[in-house]
Design brief:
Blueprint lengths: L2 E6 L5 H11 L6 E8 L2 E8 L2 H10 L6 E7 L14 E2 L3 E9 L2 H10 L11 H10 L5 H11 L2 E9 L6 E6 L4 E4 L4 E4 L2 H4 L5 E4 L5 E4 L4 E4 L5 E2 L4 E2 L15 H7 L1 H12 E2 L4 E2 L13 E6 L1 H17 L4 E5 H4 L10 E7 L5 H12 L3 E6 L5 H5 L2 E4 L12 H20 L5 H21 L3 H9 L6 E6 L3 H16 L2 E6 L16 E5 L6 H13 L3 E6 L12 E4 L8 H19 L18
Parallel strand pairs: 18-19, 18-20, 20-21, 21-22, 23-24, 23-25, 25-26, 26-27
Antiparallel strand pairs: 1-4, 1-10, 2-3, 2-4, 5-6, 6-7, 7-8, 8-12, 9-10, 9-11, 11-15, 12-13, 13-14, 16-17
Helix pairs in contact: 1-2, 3-4, 4-5, 8-13, 8-14, 9-13, 9-16, 13-14, 14-18, 15-18, 16-18
The structure holds 5-amino-5-deoxy-1-O-phosphono-D-mannitol (M6R).
The site of 5-amino-5-deoxy-1-O-phosphono-D-mannitol (M6R) has 16 residues, from helix 9 and helix 16.
Length: about 600
C-alpha cells in the first residue's frame, strides 16, 4: 500500500528519501516518486515500477534540495503510470498521499470550474489544487486545515511548498503517519520501520493531527489550528533485524525462523518456573466475559477462526468471528460484558482499525494481538498482546500467523484456567506440550525437499482445493489463501464435510486436492471425504500425523508431520502449506516477497 517519506534537513535529502522508500517497498507498490525544493522551485521526478528505477533517474538527473517528500504508490484511482504516480504538484505545492479521497469527483468538478487543469486520474490531485487555491487567502496551517475539512475518506499526507521552502507538512486521518526526530534533520514516514535507520525517537500522529517539520523543530496542530504537544517514544532495538541473512528472500527466511519466533513468543508469556502464563492487567475479568468476538482480515481472520475452536473447546464462552470489513458496517449489538479481540500483524489494517474504533466509540473492552507494538491498532486498544515475531517483510503472512495462533492459544487456556473451565492438571499439561512446540516446528520444516517435489504437480493445474475438518478447516482456508496470493492459481479451502454440497462438482482428473487429516476425532470422516475425491480422479496430497502407511494406494503424496496434542496440530499442518505456496510460486518465477496486486499493510479499505 502507498508509503510516504518526508525529510527537512541541512543537507541534500534525495538519497535518504530513496533509502527510506526502499524500506517501504515491503508494503507493495507499482510506482514511485520524489519532490524536492530546488532553487526555490518544486522539482518532481516519478516513474512506474521499482524505487531502483527512480534511483537511476536521480543518478542521471540529481534532485538537489535540503527538503523533500517521496512516495511509493499502490494504485487505487487510475492505472499505475508515471502521470498517476505521486507526488502531485502545482506551481505552489507538491503532495504525496496514502488513502482514498471518497468525494474527489465532486471536488474535482468545482476545481475545474475555477480553471484548475488536472493531469492525472488520481483522487490525490484534488488535494494539490484545493491547497493551492486556499493558500491564496489563508496562512499555512489554516489553508491545510481548511483543505482537510473538505476531504471525505482516509489519508496520510506529506506536503511541501514553494513559498514555505523550509517546511514539510504532514497530516493524518485514518491512515498511519509518524514523525521522527534526528540530529539536524526531521522526518515524516508512513511507519517507524522506514525511519528506524535514521532515528529511534518517534511521535505517532493521531487522527486530525497536522504536523509541521523544519530542519530543527517539529510542531503539531489540531483541527482548530491550535498547537498541541505530543509524546516522543523511543523505539526498541529489535533483535530480529529485517534483513534476509543467508536466505534468497524474506518469505523463506520467515517460514524457516518459525521455530525461533515461536520460542520467543512462548518465553514472553510462559513462566517456566511456576508453569504458568503471565497475563496481568487484563481489561475485563475473565470470569465476567459473556462472549468473545474475534476480528481480523485475511490470514489474521484465519487465526481468529482457529481460535474459535480453542475457546469453545476449553471455555464455556460463546465465540463469534468476523471479517473486519463486514463487522465495521453491520448493526452490532455491543455489550460491555463481551471481549472484542482484534488480530493484525501490521496493526495498521484500515478495516481492522475501523472495527476497533467502532468498539471504542461504543465503550466496550478491546484487546489487540499484533506484531507491531507501536501500531495504530495497538495504541487504540485497551490491552495489547504482542506476538513477538520480529518484522515480517514478505507480503504473505507466515511467522505472524503462527505467532497469532500461539498468543490466541495461550489466551484461551489462561482464560479457561482462571474461569476454572479447565483444571490445573490439564492447564499445566497444555503448557508443557506448548513448550515442546518450537522443536516440533523445526522437525516439520524438514519436509522442504518433499514439498518441492509436490509443488511440481501444481505447475500444470488451473487450481487446487484444500480440505479439513475441525481445527484443520481454518488451516485449509489459510493454505488456499497462501497458494492463491503467491502462485496466482485459483484455490479453494473447504470444510471437508461440505464437499457433497457443491464443490465435489469441481473434482476432475488430476485436480490437486490437499487433505488435512490429523489423527484427531475427525480423522475417519476426513479420510472418507478423501476417498470420494480419489474416486472422481482428484490428485490427493494427504498431510497427516498418522504414520501407518495410510489407507489408499491412490494417494499421490503423503506427507507426515510430527505427533503432538490434537489442539496444537494447526501449527504443524500450516508449515507444509506455507512451503507449498512458496515453492509453487518460486517454480513459476514469481516475486514471492511481493506478489502482484498485493500490499503488506492494507491501509485503505
Ligand atoms: O496486517 P494484518 O495482519 O492486519 O493484515 C491482514 C491481511 O491483509 C493479511 O493477513 C493478508 O491476508 C496476508 N497477505 C495473507 O498472507
Amino acid at each position: 500500500m502507498c508509503g510516504i517519506i518526508g525529510i527537512a534537513s541541512n543537507k541534500s535529502v534525495s538519497s535518504n528519501i530513496i533509502q527510506s522508500l526502499k524500506k517501504l517497498e515491503y508494503r507493495g507498490y507499482d510506482s514511485a516518486g520524489i519532490a524536492t525544493i530546488k532553487d526555490g522551485f518544486i522539482d518532481e521526478k516519478k516513474c512506474t515500477g521499482r524505487v531502483d528505477s527512480l534511483e537511476k533517474i536521480l543518478f542521471k538527473n540529481p534532485s538537489a534540495g535540503f527538503l523533500g517528500i517521496g512516495h511509493v504508490r499502490w494504485a487505487t484511482h487510475g492505472v499505475p503510470s508515471q502521470v498517476n504516480a505521486h507526488p502531485h504538484s502545482s506551481e505552489e505545492v507538491s503532495v504525496v498521499h496514502n488513502g482514498i479521497i471518497e468525494n474527489s469527483s465532486e471536488l474535482k468538478k468545482d476545481l475545474e470550474k475555477k480553471g484548475y487543469k488536472f493531469k492525472s486520474q488520481t483522487d490525490t490531485e484534488v488535494i494539490t489544487f484545493l491547497l493551492t487555491d486556499l493558500l491564496k487567502n489563508f496562512d499555512l496551517i489554516k489553508a491545510v486545515n481548511k483543505t482537510l475539512e473538505k476531504l471525505n475518506g482516509s489519508f496520510a499526507l506529506g506536503i511541501i511548498f514553494k513559498k514555505y521552502k523550509d517546511i514539510v507538512v504532514g497530516a493524518r486521518r485514518g491512515s498511519p503517519l509518524a514523525v521522527g526526530y534526528g540530529p539536524d534533520e526531521n522526518y515524516l514516514g508512513s511507519d517507524s520501520y522506514a525511519l528506524k535507520s535514521m532515528t529511534n525517537k518517534i511521535t505517532y500522529l493521531d487522527d486530525g493531527d497536522v504536523c509541521l517539520l523544519t530542519q530543527n523543530k517539529i510542531e503539531f496542530y489540531n483541527s482548530n489550528n491550535k498547537k498541541v504537544n505530543k509524546e516522543i517514544l523511543t523505539l526498541s532495538n529489535d533483535k530480529n533485524t529485517a534483513d534476509k541473512g543467508t536466505y534468497k528472500d524474506f518469505m523463506s527466511k520467515e517460514i524457516n525462523e518459525q521455530s525461533q519466533t515461536a520460542k520467543n513468543c512462548i518465553n514472553e508469556y510462559i513462566d517456566h518456573l511456576r508453569k504458568d502464563i503471565n497475563l496481568y492487567n487484563f481489561p475485563i475479568k475473565p470470569q465476567e466475559i459473556k462472549k468473545i468476538i474475534l476480528i481480523g482480515c485475511g490470514t489474521a481472520y484465519h487465526s481468529c477462526l482457529t481460535a474459535k475452536y480453542w475457546f469453545e473447546e476449553f471455555s464455556n464462552i460463546p465465540v463469534e468471528t468476523d471479517v473486519a470489513s463486514e463487522f465495521r458496517y453491520r448493526k452490532i449489538k455491543f455489550s460491555n460484558k463481551n471481549l472484542y479481540i482484534f488480530v493484525s500483524q501490521s496493526g495498521e489494517t484500515a478495516d481492522t482499525f475501523a472495527a476497533l474504533d467502532m468498539c471504542k466509540k461504543n465503550n466496550v473492552k478491546t484487546c489487540s494481538i499484533v506484531n507491531t507494538v507501536e501500531s495504530s491498532i495497538a495504541r487504540l486498544s485497551d490491552f495489547v498482546l504482542p506476538i513477538h515475531a520480529g518484522p515480517e517483510i514478505g507480503v504473505a503472512s507466515t511467522k505472524a500467523f503462527t505467532g497469532q495462533l500461539l498468543v490466541l492459544f495461550i489466551l484461551a487456556i489462561k482464560i479457561s484456567q482462571i474461569r476454572k473451565e479447565i483444571n490445573e492438571n490439564t492447564y499445566i499439561k497444555k503448557i508443557d506440550k506448548l513448550k515442546k512446540l518450537p522443536d516440533l516446528i523445526k522437525k516439520t520444516l524438514k519436509c522442504q525437499d518433499e514439498v518441492q517435489i509436490i509443488a511440481k504437480d501444481f505447475l500444470s493445474t488451473k487450481g487446487a482445493i484444500f480440505l479439513g475438518r475441525g481445527l484443520s478447516f481454518p488451516i485449509a482456508l489459510e493454505g488456499a489463501l497462501k497458494l492463491k496470493e503467491l502462485s496466482y492459481l485459483h484455490a479453494e479451502g473447504y470444510p471437508a464435510g461440505e464437499m457433497k454440497h457443491g464443490p465435489l462438482a469441481l473434482i476432475e482428473e488430476g485436480l490437486p486436492v490437499v487433505i488435512l487429516a490429523p489423527n484427531d476425532r475427525y480423522f475417519e470422516k476426513t479420510i472418507s471425504n478423501m476417498q470420494e475425491v480419489i474416486a472422481r480422479g482428484g490428485k490427493v496430497i494427504l498431510i497427516s500425523n498418522k504414520n501407518n502407511n495410510i489407507i489408499s494406494e491412490n494417494i499421490r503424496f503423503t506427507l507426515e508431520v510430527p505427533q503432538t496434542d490434537d489442539y496444537l496440530m494447526p501449527f504443524l499442518m500450516t508449515i507444509p502449506l506455507q512451503l507449498l505456496a512458496y515453492y509453487v510460486a518460486s517454480l513459476k518465477n514469481h516475486d514471492v516477497d511481493k506478489p502482484r496486486n498485493l500490499a503488506k499493510s492494507v491501509t485503505v479499505e
